[in-house]
Backbone:
Protein backbone atom coordinates (compact mmCIF):
# COMPACT_ATOMS: atom_id res chain seq x y z
CA UNK A 1 0.00 0.00 0.00
CA UNK A 2 1.46 3.31 -1.04
CA UNK A 3 0.59 6.21 1.27
CA UNK A 4 3.31 8.62 0.31
CA UNK A 5 1.68 11.84 1.46
CA UNK A 6 -0.32 12.89 4.52
CA UNK A 7 -3.52 13.40 2.58
CA UNK A 8 -3.45 9.87 1.22
CA UNK A 9 -2.69 8.59 4.73
CA UNK A 10 -5.64 10.62 6.01
CA UNK A 11 -7.93 9.19 3.34
CA UNK A 12 -6.84 5.70 4.25
CA UNK A 13 -7.36 6.30 7.97
CA UNK A 14 -10.75 7.93 7.48
CA UNK A 15 -11.95 5.11 5.26
CA UNK A 16 -11.95 2.90 8.38
CA UNK A 17 -14.72 4.93 9.97
CA UNK A 18 -17.84 2.98 10.78
CA UNK A 19 -16.07 -0.36 11.06
CA UNK A 20 -17.87 -2.57 13.52
CA UNK A 21 -16.13 -5.41 15.30
CA UNK A 22 -17.21 -7.70 18.10
CA UNK A 23 -15.08 -6.14 20.81
CA UNK A 24 -15.25 -2.35 20.94
CA UNK A 25 -16.86 0.55 22.77
CA UNK A 26 -20.11 1.96 21.36
CA UNK A 27 -20.18 5.80 21.35
CA UNK A 28 -22.57 7.19 22.22
CA UNK A 29 -23.61 4.10 24.15
CA UNK A 30 -26.53 2.03 22.93
CA UNK A 31 -27.95 -0.99 24.70
CA UNK A 32 -31.19 -2.66 23.68
CA UNK A 33 -31.54 -4.71 26.82
CA UNK A 34 -31.53 -2.21 29.67
CA UNK A 35 -33.77 -3.08 32.63
CA UNK A 36 -37.33 -1.83 32.12
CA UNK A 37 -36.97 0.93 34.73
CA UNK A 38 -33.78 2.37 33.20
CA UNK A 39 -34.00 5.14 30.61
CA UNK A 40 -31.65 4.98 27.65
CA UNK A 41 -30.83 8.61 28.52
CA UNK A 42 -29.10 7.31 31.64
CA UNK A 43 -26.83 4.94 29.75
CA UNK A 44 -23.17 5.80 30.39
CA UNK A 45 -20.99 3.04 29.01
CA UNK A 46 -21.34 0.21 26.53
CA UNK A 47 -18.22 -1.72 25.65
CA UNK A 48 -17.31 -5.29 24.82
CA UNK A 49 -13.86 -6.08 26.20
CA UNK A 50 -11.77 -8.44 24.10
CA UNK A 51 -10.44 -11.70 25.45
CA UNK A 52 -6.99 -10.77 26.69
CA UNK A 53 -8.06 -7.12 26.78
CA UNK A 54 -8.74 -4.62 29.54
CA UNK A 55 -10.75 -1.51 30.27
CA UNK A 56 -10.82 1.09 33.02
CA UNK A 57 -13.38 3.75 33.80
CA UNK A 58 -14.48 6.23 36.39
CA UNK A 59 -18.00 5.62 37.69
CA UNK A 60 -19.95 8.02 39.88
CA UNK A 61 -21.60 6.99 43.15
CA UNK A 62 -24.88 5.24 42.37
CA UNK A 63 -23.83 4.04 38.91
CA UNK A 64 -24.82 0.48 38.03
CA UNK A 65 -22.23 -1.61 36.22
CA UNK A 66 -23.51 -4.73 34.51
CA UNK A 67 -20.95 -7.27 33.34
CA UNK A 68 -22.04 -10.02 30.99
CA UNK A 69 -20.04 -13.14 30.21
CA UNK A 70 -21.21 -13.15 26.59
CA UNK A 71 -19.96 -16.58 25.55
CA UNK A 72 -19.37 -18.28 28.88
CA UNK A 73 -15.61 -18.06 29.11
CA UNK A 74 -14.83 -14.53 30.30
CA UNK A 75 -12.90 -13.79 33.49
CA UNK A 76 -13.25 -10.29 34.88
CA UNK A 77 -10.31 -9.54 37.15
CA UNK A 78 -11.40 -6.39 38.94
CA UNK A 79 -9.59 -3.62 40.79
CA UNK A 80 -11.51 -0.76 42.39
CA UNK A 81 -10.16 2.59 43.61
CA UNK A 82 -11.79 5.54 45.31
CA UNK A 83 -11.67 7.94 42.35
CA UNK A 84 -10.94 11.06 44.37
CA UNK A 85 -8.34 9.40 46.62
CA UNK A 86 -6.97 6.31 44.84
CA UNK A 87 -4.79 5.35 47.82
CA UNK A 88 -8.09 3.95 49.06
CA UNK A 89 -8.75 0.75 47.17
CA UNK A 90 -10.36 -2.66 47.23
CA UNK A 91 -9.14 -4.80 50.12
CA UNK A 92 -9.86 -8.46 49.43
CA UNK A 93 -8.83 -9.56 52.92
CA UNK A 94 -11.23 -7.14 54.61
CA UNK A 95 -13.90 -8.08 52.05
CA UNK A 96 -13.93 -11.73 53.11
CA UNK A 97 -13.03 -11.20 56.77
CA UNK A 98 -15.54 -8.49 57.59
CA UNK A 99 -18.35 -10.45 55.90
CA UNK A 100 -17.28 -13.69 57.60
CA UNK A 101 -17.42 -15.50 54.28
CA UNK A 102 -15.06 -16.54 51.50
CA UNK A 103 -17.43 -16.38 48.56
CA UNK A 104 -18.74 -13.43 46.57
CA UNK A 105 -22.32 -13.26 45.29
CA UNK A 106 -25.53 -11.25 45.36
CA UNK A 107 -25.72 -9.02 48.42
CA UNK A 108 -21.98 -9.08 49.09
CA UNK A 109 -19.94 -5.90 49.48
CA UNK A 110 -16.58 -5.05 47.96
CA UNK A 111 -14.85 -3.23 50.78
CA UNK A 112 -12.03 -0.72 50.75
CA UNK A 113 -9.06 -0.58 53.10
CA UNK A 114 -10.73 2.38 54.82
CA UNK A 115 -13.74 0.59 56.22
CA UNK A 116 -16.04 1.67 53.40
CA UNK A 117 -17.97 -0.14 50.69
CA UNK A 118 -16.74 0.72 47.20
CA UNK A 119 -19.27 -1.36 45.29
CA UNK A 120 -21.97 -3.83 46.17
CA UNK A 121 -23.09 -6.87 44.19
CA UNK A 122 -26.77 -6.28 43.50
CA UNK A 123 -27.51 -9.23 41.22
CA UNK A 124 -25.55 -12.28 40.23
CA UNK A 125 -26.57 -15.11 37.93
CA UNK A 126 -23.05 -16.55 37.72
CA UNK A 127 -22.27 -17.47 41.34
CA UNK A 128 -18.74 -18.57 40.52
CA UNK A 129 -16.31 -15.91 41.67
CA UNK A 130 -12.95 -15.81 43.38
CA UNK A 131 -11.37 -13.54 45.98
CA UNK A 132 -8.22 -15.58 46.56
CA UNK A 133 -6.27 -16.51 43.44
CA UNK A 134 -5.54 -13.13 41.94
CA UNK A 135 -4.58 -12.98 38.31
CA UNK A 136 -1.86 -14.25 36.04
CA UNK A 137 1.50 -12.51 35.73
CA UNK A 138 4.27 -12.60 33.15
CA UNK A 139 5.94 -15.55 34.87
CA UNK A 140 2.81 -17.70 35.08
CA UNK A 141 1.93 -17.05 31.44
CA UNK A 142 5.45 -17.85 30.28
CA UNK A 143 5.24 -21.12 32.20
CA UNK A 144 1.81 -21.97 30.81
CA UNK A 145 1.60 -20.48 27.32
CA UNK A 146 5.24 -19.88 26.42
CA UNK A 147 5.00 -16.10 26.80
CA UNK A 148 2.82 -13.49 28.44
CA UNK A 149 3.75 -10.04 27.20
CA UNK A 150 1.30 -7.23 26.55
CA UNK A 151 2.74 -7.14 23.05
CA UNK A 152 2.27 -10.85 22.45
CA UNK A 153 -0.63 -13.22 21.93
CA UNK A 154 -1.09 -14.24 25.59
CA UNK A 155 -1.17 -11.10 27.71
CA UNK A 156 -1.22 -11.68 31.45
CA UNK A 157 -3.78 -10.23 33.83
CA UNK A 158 -1.39 -8.29 36.03
CA UNK A 159 0.18 -6.41 33.14
CA UNK A 160 -3.34 -5.64 31.82
CA UNK A 161 -4.38 -4.29 35.22
CA UNK A 162 -1.20 -2.21 35.36
CA UNK A 163 -2.00 -0.62 31.99
CA UNK A 164 -5.62 -0.02 32.98
CA UNK A 165 -4.57 1.60 36.25
CA UNK A 166 -1.85 3.60 34.49
CA UNK A 167 -4.50 5.24 32.30
CA UNK A 168 -5.69 6.90 35.51
CA UNK A 169 -2.22 7.99 36.56
CA UNK A 170 -1.55 5.01 38.80
CA UNK A 171 1.64 2.97 38.94
CA UNK A 172 2.82 -0.62 39.44
CA UNK A 173 2.73 -0.18 43.20
CA UNK A 174 -0.97 0.67 42.99
CA UNK A 175 -2.03 -2.65 41.46
CA UNK A 176 -3.41 -4.39 44.51
CA UNK A 177 -4.95 -7.86 44.97
CA UNK A 178 -8.01 -8.29 42.75
CA UNK A 179 -11.21 -10.29 42.69
CA UNK A 180 -12.18 -12.46 39.75
CA UNK A 181 -15.78 -12.46 38.56
CA UNK A 182 -17.27 -15.32 36.49
CA UNK A 183 -14.37 -17.71 37.19
CA UNK A 184 -14.60 -19.22 40.64
CA UNK A 185 -12.72 -21.18 43.22
CA UNK A 186 -13.81 -23.47 46.02
CA UNK A 187 -11.71 -23.80 49.16
CA UNK A 188 -11.33 -27.34 50.48
CA UNK A 189 -11.02 -28.22 54.16
CA UNK A 190 -7.23 -28.55 53.92
CA UNK A 191 -6.94 -25.15 52.23
CA UNK A 192 -6.67 -26.56 48.70
CA UNK A 193 -7.99 -24.23 45.99
CA UNK A 194 -10.22 -25.91 43.41
CA UNK A 195 -10.72 -23.76 40.30
CA UNK A 196 -14.22 -23.62 38.81
CA UNK A 197 -13.60 -22.20 35.37
CA UNK A 198 -16.28 -23.68 33.12
CA UNK A 199 -16.73 -22.86 30.32
CA UNK A 200 -20.27 -21.94 31.35
CA UNK A 201 -23.49 -21.19 29.53
CA UNK A 202 -23.41 -17.82 27.72
CA UNK A 203 -24.99 -14.71 29.16
CA UNK A 204 -24.30 -14.97 32.87
CA UNK A 205 -24.43 -11.53 34.51
CA UNK A 206 -23.22 -9.62 37.53
CA UNK A 207 -24.76 -6.25 38.43
CA UNK A 208 -22.60 -4.01 40.60
CA UNK A 209 -23.58 -0.72 42.23
CA UNK A 210 -20.95 1.95 42.87
CA UNK A 211 -21.32 3.09 46.47
CA UNK A 212 -18.59 5.71 46.08
CA UNK A 213 -17.06 7.53 43.10
CA UNK A 214 -14.77 4.79 41.85
CA UNK A 215 -12.25 3.86 39.19
CA UNK A 216 -12.78 0.29 38.02
CA UNK A 217 -10.03 -1.55 36.20
CA UNK A 218 -11.03 -4.80 34.49
CA UNK A 219 -8.72 -7.32 32.83
CA UNK A 220 -10.29 -10.13 30.81
CA UNK A 221 -7.61 -12.81 30.79
CA UNK A 222 -7.76 -16.56 31.53
CA UNK A 223 -8.02 -17.38 35.23
CA UNK A 224 -4.56 -18.00 36.68
CA UNK A 225 -5.58 -21.52 37.76
CA UNK A 226 -7.37 -22.38 34.51
CA UNK A 227 -6.15 -25.93 33.85
CA UNK A 228 -6.56 -25.75 30.08
CA UNK A 229 -3.40 -25.66 28.02
CA UNK A 230 -4.85 -23.20 25.52
CA UNK A 231 -5.23 -19.49 26.30
CA UNK A 232 -9.03 -19.64 26.58
CA UNK A 233 -11.04 -16.47 27.17
CA UNK A 234 -14.06 -14.92 25.44
CA UNK A 235 -15.38 -11.34 25.27
CA UNK A 236 -16.79 -9.57 28.31
CA UNK A 237 -19.51 -6.96 27.95
CA UNK A 238 -19.65 -3.92 30.25
CA UNK A 239 -22.71 -1.69 30.44
CA UNK A 240 -23.14 1.13 32.94
CA UNK A 241 -26.02 3.47 33.67
CA UNK A 242 -26.81 6.23 36.13
CA UNK A 243 -28.62 5.18 39.25
CA UNK A 244 -29.79 6.48 42.58
CA UNK A 245 -27.45 6.63 45.55
CA UNK A 246 -28.26 3.79 47.92
CA UNK A 247 -31.11 4.88 50.21
CA UNK A 248 -31.29 4.25 53.95
CA UNK A 249 -33.86 1.49 53.54
CA UNK A 250 -31.83 -0.48 51.00
CA UNK A 251 -31.87 -4.19 51.90
CA UNK A 252 -28.19 -4.73 51.02
CA UNK A 253 -27.20 -1.73 53.15
CA UNK A 254 -29.05 -3.15 56.12
CA UNK A 255 -28.35 -6.85 55.66
CA UNK A 256 -25.62 -7.21 58.31
CA UNK A 257 -24.31 -5.03 61.15
CA UNK A 258 -20.82 -5.01 59.63
CA UNK A 259 -22.14 -4.00 56.20
CA UNK A 260 -24.36 -1.32 57.66
CA UNK A 261 -21.35 0.22 59.39
CA UNK A 262 -19.49 0.18 56.04
CA UNK A 263 -22.38 2.15 54.52
CA UNK A 264 -22.45 4.49 57.53
CA UNK A 265 -18.75 5.15 56.93
CA UNK A 266 -19.45 5.91 53.24
CA UNK A 267 -22.29 8.25 54.14
CA UNK A 268 -20.01 9.96 56.66
CA UNK A 269 -17.31 10.36 53.98
CA UNK A 270 -19.79 12.14 51.70
CA UNK A 271 -21.11 14.37 54.51
CA UNK A 272 -19.47 17.55 53.24
CA UNK B 1 25.12 -22.70 80.98
CA UNK B 2 21.56 -23.28 79.79
CA UNK B 3 21.10 -23.55 76.05
CA UNK B 4 18.76 -20.96 74.52
CA UNK B 5 15.82 -23.05 73.26
CA UNK B 6 14.82 -20.39 70.76
CA UNK B 7 17.97 -20.83 68.68
CA UNK B 8 17.70 -24.59 68.57
CA UNK B 9 18.26 -25.95 65.08
CA UNK B 10 19.62 -22.72 63.65
CA UNK B 11 22.86 -23.01 61.74
CA UNK B 12 25.17 -20.15 60.92
CA UNK B 13 26.03 -17.00 62.76
CA UNK B 14 23.46 -14.84 64.48
CA UNK B 15 23.69 -11.37 62.91
CA UNK B 16 20.60 -9.85 64.53
CA UNK B 17 18.58 -10.78 67.60
CA UNK B 18 15.80 -8.57 68.85
CA UNK B 19 12.63 -8.72 70.90
CA UNK B 20 9.73 -6.88 69.28
CA UNK B 21 7.52 -5.59 72.08
CA UNK B 22 3.85 -6.37 72.13
CA UNK B 23 1.86 -4.08 69.76
CA UNK B 24 4.94 -2.66 68.03
CA UNK B 25 6.11 -2.37 64.40
CA UNK B 26 9.42 -3.78 63.15
CA UNK B 27 11.36 -3.25 59.92
CA UNK B 28 14.49 -5.10 58.94
CA UNK B 29 16.53 -5.66 55.80
CA UNK B 30 17.27 -9.33 55.24
CA UNK B 31 19.82 -10.28 52.62
CA UNK B 32 19.46 -13.14 50.16
CA UNK B 33 20.58 -16.34 51.84
CA UNK B 34 20.00 -15.11 55.38
CA UNK B 35 17.35 -16.80 57.51
CA UNK B 36 14.88 -14.98 59.72
CA UNK B 37 13.45 -16.93 62.63
CA UNK B 38 10.33 -15.59 64.33
CA UNK B 39 9.73 -16.91 67.83
CA UNK B 40 6.17 -16.85 69.19
CA UNK B 41 7.44 -16.31 72.74
CA UNK B 42 4.20 -16.65 74.67
CA UNK B 43 2.05 -18.46 72.10
CA UNK B 44 -0.66 -17.54 69.58
CA UNK B 45 0.67 -14.06 68.84
CA UNK B 46 -0.26 -13.00 65.31
CA UNK B 47 2.74 -11.57 63.45
CA UNK B 48 1.49 -9.54 60.50
CA UNK B 49 4.16 -9.68 57.84
CA UNK B 50 4.93 -7.88 54.56
CA UNK B 51 7.94 -8.26 52.27
CA UNK B 52 9.36 -5.78 49.76
CA UNK B 53 12.18 -6.34 47.28
CA UNK B 54 15.11 -4.23 48.48
CA UNK B 55 16.05 -3.41 44.89
CA UNK B 56 12.57 -2.37 43.74
CA UNK B 57 9.98 -1.95 46.45
CA UNK B 58 7.12 -1.87 43.92
CA UNK B 59 7.76 -5.61 43.87
CA UNK B 60 6.33 -6.97 47.10
CA UNK B 61 4.75 -9.98 48.74
CA UNK B 62 1.60 -11.15 47.01
CA UNK B 63 -0.74 -13.41 48.94
CA UNK B 64 -2.65 -14.20 45.76
CA UNK B 65 0.41 -15.20 43.73
CA UNK B 66 1.67 -17.26 46.65
CA UNK B 67 -1.52 -19.27 47.17
CA UNK B 68 -2.15 -19.69 43.44
CA UNK B 69 1.34 -21.03 42.82
CA UNK B 70 0.91 -23.74 45.45
CA UNK B 71 -2.84 -24.28 44.90
CA UNK B 72 -3.53 -23.94 48.63
CA UNK B 73 -4.42 -21.13 51.00
CA UNK B 74 -2.34 -22.29 53.94
CA UNK B 75 1.33 -21.44 54.40
CA UNK B 76 3.32 -24.46 55.56
CA UNK B 77 6.90 -25.69 55.62
CA UNK B 78 8.07 -25.51 52.03
CA UNK B 79 5.78 -22.67 50.99
CA UNK B 80 7.50 -20.19 48.69
CA UNK B 81 6.42 -16.63 49.49
CA UNK B 82 6.06 -14.99 46.09
CA UNK B 83 6.03 -11.43 44.84
CA UNK B 84 3.45 -9.69 42.68
CA UNK B 85 5.78 -10.53 39.79
CA UNK B 86 5.59 -14.21 40.70
CA UNK B 87 9.18 -14.42 41.94
CA UNK B 88 10.29 -16.20 45.14
CA UNK B 89 11.00 -13.69 47.92
CA UNK B 90 11.35 -15.98 50.94
CA UNK B 91 10.78 -19.67 51.66
CA UNK B 92 9.32 -21.16 54.83
CA UNK B 93 12.13 -23.64 55.49
CA UNK B 94 10.79 -24.85 58.81
CA UNK B 95 7.90 -24.31 61.17
CA UNK B 96 6.49 -26.32 64.03
CA UNK B 97 3.05 -24.79 63.48
CA UNK B 98 0.88 -26.79 61.09
CA UNK B 99 -0.02 -23.80 58.95
CA UNK B 100 -0.09 -20.00 58.90
CA UNK B 101 -2.62 -17.57 57.41
CA UNK B 102 -2.47 -15.22 54.45
CA UNK B 103 -6.16 -14.48 53.77
CA UNK B 104 -7.10 -12.67 56.98
CA UNK B 105 -5.30 -9.42 56.22
CA UNK B 106 -4.30 -6.85 58.80
CA UNK B 107 -6.49 -5.14 61.33
CA UNK B 108 -6.97 -1.43 60.87
CA UNK B 109 -8.72 1.28 62.85
CA UNK B 110 -11.20 1.51 59.97
CA UNK B 111 -11.96 -2.19 59.57
CA UNK B 112 -12.27 -2.47 63.35
CA UNK B 113 -15.20 -0.06 63.12
CA UNK B 114 -16.91 -2.54 60.81
CA UNK B 115 -16.06 -5.69 62.69
CA UNK B 116 -16.63 -4.53 66.26
CA UNK B 117 -18.17 -1.06 66.21
CA UNK B 118 -17.06 2.56 66.16
CA UNK B 119 -16.01 2.39 69.82
CA UNK B 120 -12.81 0.57 68.64
CA UNK B 121 -11.67 3.39 66.33
CA UNK B 122 -8.87 4.54 68.64
CA UNK B 123 -7.46 1.13 69.43
CA UNK B 124 -4.02 0.56 67.93
CA UNK B 125 -4.01 -1.57 64.77
CA UNK B 126 -1.66 -3.36 62.40
CA UNK B 127 -2.13 -1.03 59.45
CA UNK B 128 -0.91 1.84 61.65
CA UNK B 129 2.19 -0.21 62.44
CA UNK B 130 2.72 -1.01 58.74
CA UNK B 131 2.36 2.67 57.90
CA UNK B 132 4.68 3.85 60.67
CA UNK B 133 7.40 1.42 59.62
CA UNK B 134 7.01 1.90 55.87
CA UNK B 135 6.91 5.69 56.08
CA UNK B 136 10.47 5.65 57.46
CA UNK B 137 11.57 4.44 54.01
CA UNK B 138 9.24 6.51 51.85
CA UNK B 139 6.54 3.90 51.33
CA UNK B 140 2.96 4.76 52.15
CA UNK B 141 -0.55 3.53 52.10
CA UNK B 142 -0.52 2.40 48.49
CA UNK B 143 2.30 0.01 49.38
CA UNK B 144 0.25 -1.95 51.88
CA UNK B 145 -1.17 -5.13 50.40
CA UNK B 146 -2.59 -8.40 51.69
CA UNK B 147 -0.14 -9.74 54.25
CA UNK B 148 0.87 -12.94 56.01
CA UNK B 149 -0.28 -13.62 59.54
CA UNK B 150 2.20 -15.97 61.12
CA UNK B 151 0.79 -17.93 64.08
CA UNK B 152 -2.79 -17.02 63.11
CA UNK B 153 -5.53 -19.49 62.20
CA UNK B 154 -8.21 -18.66 59.61
CA UNK B 155 -10.11 -21.77 58.48
CA UNK B 156 -12.63 -21.74 55.62
CA UNK B 157 -15.68 -23.94 56.18
CA UNK B 158 -17.54 -25.80 53.46
CA UNK B 159 -20.21 -23.10 53.16
CA UNK B 160 -17.54 -20.41 52.93
CA UNK B 161 -17.78 -19.35 56.57
CA UNK B 162 -14.43 -17.82 57.39
CA UNK B 163 -12.99 -16.21 60.47
CA UNK B 164 -10.06 -15.79 62.80
CA UNK B 165 -10.37 -18.55 65.40
CA UNK B 166 -8.29 -19.91 68.27
CA UNK B 167 -4.65 -20.25 67.29
CA UNK B 168 -2.73 -23.47 66.75
CA UNK B 169 0.62 -22.12 67.90
CA UNK B 170 2.14 -22.41 71.37
CA UNK B 171 4.83 -20.70 73.47
CA UNK B 172 8.25 -21.02 71.86
CA UNK B 173 7.07 -22.22 68.45
CA UNK B 174 8.92 -20.75 65.50
CA UNK B 175 8.90 -20.13 61.78
CA UNK B 176 12.14 -19.96 59.78
CA UNK B 177 12.20 -17.92 56.57
CA UNK B 178 15.08 -18.01 54.12
CA UNK B 179 15.41 -14.91 51.98
CA UNK B 180 15.58 -15.75 48.27
CA UNK B 181 16.37 -12.15 47.33
CA UNK B 182 17.41 -9.06 49.27
CA UNK B 183 14.21 -8.10 51.05
CA UNK B 184 12.76 -5.57 53.43
CA UNK B 185 10.60 -7.24 56.06
CA UNK B 186 7.90 -5.11 57.66
CA UNK B 187 6.09 -6.53 60.67
CA UNK B 188 3.23 -5.52 62.90
CA UNK B 189 3.26 -7.43 66.14
CA UNK B 190 -0.52 -7.43 66.14
CA UNK B 191 -2.17 -5.30 68.85
CA UNK B 192 -5.71 -6.63 68.24
CA UNK B 193 -7.67 -7.33 71.43
CA UNK B 194 -11.10 -8.10 69.99
CA UNK B 195 -10.54 -11.54 68.46
CA UNK B 196 -8.56 -14.72 69.17
CA UNK B 197 -5.61 -13.84 66.89
CA UNK B 198 -3.57 -12.94 69.97
CA UNK B 199 -5.55 -14.98 72.48
CA UNK B 200 -6.96 -11.51 73.41
CA UNK B 201 -3.56 -10.59 74.85
CA UNK B 202 -0.80 -9.13 72.63
CA UNK B 203 2.66 -10.41 73.58
CA UNK B 204 6.27 -9.90 72.43
CA UNK B 205 7.97 -11.90 69.68
CA UNK B 206 11.65 -12.51 69.01
CA UNK B 207 13.37 -11.99 65.67
CA UNK B 208 16.65 -13.80 65.00
CA UNK B 209 18.57 -13.42 61.73
CA UNK B 210 21.34 -15.84 60.84
CA UNK B 211 23.68 -16.19 57.91
Residues:
Amino acid sequence: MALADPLAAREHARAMAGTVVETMPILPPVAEDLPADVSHLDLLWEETIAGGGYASRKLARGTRLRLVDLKGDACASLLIFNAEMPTERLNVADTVKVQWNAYLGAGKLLLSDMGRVLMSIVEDTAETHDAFSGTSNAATNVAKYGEGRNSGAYPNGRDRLILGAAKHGLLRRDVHPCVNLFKGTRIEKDGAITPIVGPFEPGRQVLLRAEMDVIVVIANCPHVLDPREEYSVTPLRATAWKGAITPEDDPIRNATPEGLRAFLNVEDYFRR
Amino acid sequence: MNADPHISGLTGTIVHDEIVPARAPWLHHVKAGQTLRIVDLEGNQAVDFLIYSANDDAERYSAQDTVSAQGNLFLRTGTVLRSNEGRPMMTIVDTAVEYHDTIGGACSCESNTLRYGHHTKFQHACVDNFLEANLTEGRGKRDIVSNINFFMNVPVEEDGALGIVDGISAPGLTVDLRAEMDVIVVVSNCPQINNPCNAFNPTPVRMIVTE
Notes: Chain B has a mean pLDDT of 97.
